[in-house]
Each structure stands twice: as structure tokens, then as C-alpha cells.
Amino acid sequence: MKNNVKIMRMKMSMTQEQLAKRVGATRQTIGLIEKGEYNPSLQLCVAIAKELNKTLDDLFWEENLL
Amino acid sequence: MKNNVKIMRMKMSMTQEQLAKRVGATRQTIGLIEKGEYNPSLQLCVAIAKELNKTLDDLFWEENLL
DNA sequence: TACTTATGCAATTTATATCTTACATTAACT
DNA sequence: AGTTAATGTAAGATATAAATTGCATAAGTA
After folding, report:
1. Domain span at A35
2. Is this model's pTM higher than 0.90 or not?
3. What is the DSSP letter of A8?
């Protein structure tokens, strides 16, 4: 489950904790998702995408990985 | 968690059971996802999208809902 | 040095997605 | 009427996402 969350979060100058609070998750959960060895729920993925002004495909679709 | 899974599955002339088998899930899980009152995992969403020749955004991004 | 901030990581608990099994319904067909 | 295929739905068990708590570390800073 590799993804672009970490890169896009840093582009927005947000910390894991700030993003976590805004999407209603914990810092640990965000950390695990960024690490990639995790299978988050669709709701959480959508919440993260909206906070980072991206779409699901931008963050999680294979062909779009940076 | 409304989505376009049911519409796209029917466009591909697949039954819930056929789609379920191809993505490694059960018919019941597919049914619940299509019904929309459910929060599937990202892995399952990706598997479904690939089987239906669509992307995550096509199936699950709000602005793309049919 | 000491202090703070951001992150990594691990153990335990809680919530819930998913599976399994089962039964009901509807539509199409013989 | 009877049969089959596709779907809806529900109860219980299992797997795992996510929360909670805690500690370690690196980088910056007073």
C-alpha cells in the first residue's frame, strides 16, 4: 500500500499530528499509512485526500506514485 | 460511502459473485459495498477498481458519482 | 547542557471490516 | 407449479484497522 501521503503532507507543511487531528485520526495511524505497510479504510483515505487538496488517485493510485 | 461500483459492475455484465471471486472477497461484502453503508479497505477498493477497468476516483470520488 | 518538536516504534485494547453460514425474495425459464 | 440464478439480509466468528499509552531518537534552539 505504497502512497504519496508523506510527500503531499510535507508539501503542505503539515506535521503528522496536524494532519491526524484534521482527519480525526491519530498520529500513529498517519505514520503507519505513510510507511506504506498498512491497509487504511476508504473513509480515512478520502479524509486525508480532502485535507491535502488531492484526490484518491493522486495519493493512492499506483500509476500516480512519485 | 456512496459509490459507482454497482453501475460499473453491471456495465461489465458481471454478477456480484463473479466480481467477489475475482477480487478475493465474498458476495456479501460486495453487496454491502454497493449498498453504500460500508467503509471498505483501500486494498479491496483498488482490487475492485482494477477488475472493473476503473480508477479509485472513478468509483469512489464524490464528484464522480453518477 | 537542557528543552522542545516531530517522528519512529512497540504492546495492548477497542472497534469494525470481512468471512461463514443460512434463509428469504425476485425474476426468468421449463 | 417447480427450478435456477442473482440478490438482500442477518447472526456469529475471525481478522485487522485504529486508538491508546508509553518510550526512544534526532534536530533545532535557548
Report:
1. 5-64
2. yes
3. H
